[in-house]
Write a structure and sequence with these properties.
heterodimer; A: alpha/beta; six-stranded mixed sheet; five-stranded parallel sheet; B: alpha+beta; three-stranded antiparallel sheet; 5 strands
Chain lengths: 417, 99
């Protein structure tokens, strides 16, 4: 049976068999790509970005910028761009109708069938996607740093990535993810977007969303699964290290705060654009393709600084609800109340002057000191896992350092064909 | 030199709390986040700048107003100095030791 993804289109993996791949790449010009583009090649090839079959041509980018759709009218909020300098375009002979082979880490990764080479007004693109065009916005900065030309065209993977330890078990592309959901017997699933090690505020965001998603379903057997989908991409100094994020999320299940009957940890390769509302739409698309039925959104989803209002993403989602195949679940903040003596929701507890809000900064401060917090703040098993990851993967720190960036093992490799 | 007004949170586990009790300093701790204890020491603006410039700290002006992301070695030194000097005015001395 066909698996239908975003926009009502069938999800098809664009991956060649190794024997066919070897034949197809013979004699083709090799074009090396950076990590971000390799991530996006994976996103396209496995159907995370369905119905996209490749990097966007000008017609699609125009539609994304002007109408928040693809050229065919399907909702789409973030341009997926492949950039090259004028010199590279000339050196590689990039032109409409030409097929090249994209290489990563020196090895062939994907065929790229060029169908468009174009320039674009980056300022206009930024204004539309991010609501601002200033370089200090990290999403704008990324756009401004792209090279002179954009190249559109279909992508086909010639070599599947080898996902390195400890990430391998968590890489579940759309078709595989949908199979897992069927095996678990879940009729509804709710996505939890994360780039964090979980404290109990996060845990209760998931638990709250679980109940909201369960709603009117029968309770005789497990019907709802929380799908933690960690975004693995560009790291900045002082972010949590990827290994700690993924293993600590999974620790919540392993230590019994969730179970395999209602929880799974997965990852998607993507460099955050911090586009707030537009990124919320993009996340809805990604998780639709993963076969997830509901998506949790908290305050200032995928925002940065004070660029977006707390509920701006919710409003944009509501404006296109009939065009999305996933149901948004809106979550209030969770906090600790010493009077209630529990983690509770800001929408429930009325001890306003006693509430102790979770602050990412304070939690980081506690983790840095290596002081084990009360189990009502960070689960002891999660804290132990943070410390273990710090030693095993982070050169003694659970946060990204220059040393970590230099010495870390790649999340994935492209091996020789 | 400006007045010390930039808080630094030094988190206190059971072991640290015992040390503070022995030194007669346990009453200086405050409870935050589900009873987790913290010692708050203050840095002057000049000291805060050194902590940011030399030790990669961040002045969190948007939420806590505190000096954050200090490496563990700096926090440990601040705690040790509190116990040694039996005082919360320890940032100057700690910075001297760390130079």
């Amino acid at each position: 049976m066909a698996e239908i993804g975003h926009g009502g289109k069938e999800i098809k993996e664009r991956i060649l068999q190794p024997s066919e791949a070897k034949e197809k790449i013979k004699g083709l010009t090799e074009v090396p790509i950076r990590r971000q583009l390799a991530n996006e090649v994976i996103g396209i090839s496995y159907g995370f970005f369905s119905p996209l079959e490749g990097f966007m041509n000008k017609a699609d980018v125009d539609a994304v910028v002007n109408k928040m759709t693809l050229a065919d009218g399907t909702i789409w909020s973030i341009p997926i761009l492949f950039d090259l300098s004028d010199k590279e375009v000339a050196d590689y002979g990039i032109a409409k109708g030409k097929t090249v082979v994209l290489t990563y880490q020196g090895n062939p990764m994907a065929l790229f069938e060029v169908d468009d080479v174009f320039e674009y007004d980056k300022k206009a693109m930024c204004k539309s996607i991010f609501g601002v065009d200033e370089e200090k916005h990290p999403g704008c900065k990324r756009i401004y740093e792209t090279a002179d030309k954009f190249v559109g065209g279909k992508i086909t993977l010639v070599k599947e990535p080898t996902i390195n330890e400890p990430f391998g078990p968590y890489f579940l592309p759309p078709l595989k993810m949908r199979q897992v959901i069927k095996e678990k017997g879940w009729s509804r699933t709710v996505a939890h977007q994360t780039r964090n090690v979980p404290h109990t505020g996060h845990e209760w965001l998931m638990k709250g969303a679980f109940f909201q998603t369960y709603a009117d379903l029968p309770i005789e057997k497990p019907e709802v699964g929380v799908v933690v989908n960690a975004i693995i991409g560009e790291k900045r100094v002082k972010d949590y290290i990827d290994e700690a994020i993924i293993l600590c999320q999974d620790e919540l299940e392993k230590a019994g705060y969730f179970g395999p009957h209602n929880h799974i940890t997965t990852l998607t390769f993507w460099d955050m654009r911090y586009a707030g509302p537009k990124e919320a739409i993009f996340h809805a698309i990604l998780r639709t393709n993963l076969g997830i039925t509901h998506h949790m959104y908290g305050r200032d989803h995928a925002g940065v600084g004070d660029y977006y209002g707390a509920y701006e993403a919710h409003h944009l989602l509501d404006s296109v609800r009939d065009k999305l195949d996933i149901t948004p679940v809106y979550s209030m903040n969770w906090l600790y109340c010493p009077v209630c003596a529990e983690i509770t929701s800001e929408g429930l507890c009325n001890h306003k002057d006693k509430q102790q809000k979770f602050s990412g900064t304070l939690i980081r401060s506690i983790v840095t000191d290596g002081v084990k917090p009360p189990r009502l703040i960070i689960r002891p098993e999660v804290f132990d896992q943070i410390m273990a990851c710090s030693e095993k993967y982070g050169q003694g720190s659970p946060f990204v350092t220059e040393e970590y960036l230099e010495k870390r093992t790649s999340v994935f490799n492209i091996e020789p064909l | 030199m400006s007045a010390a007004k930039n808080p630094i949170y030094v988190w206190v586990n059971e072991e640290r709390y015992e040390q503070l009790q022995k030194a007669g300093l346990a009453h200086h701790t405050e409870e935050r986040l589900a009873g987790l204890k913290v010692l708050v020491v203050y840095a002057t603006d000049e000291e805060a700048k050194v902590l940011v410039d030399k030790f990669g700290a961040k002045h969190d002006t948007s939420t806590t107003g505190s000096i954050e992301l200090l490496p563990a070695k700096v926090k440990n030194k601040l705690f040790d100095k509190v116990v040694e000097k039996q005082s919360l005015e320890v940032v100057t001395d700690a910075l001297k030791d760390l130079e």
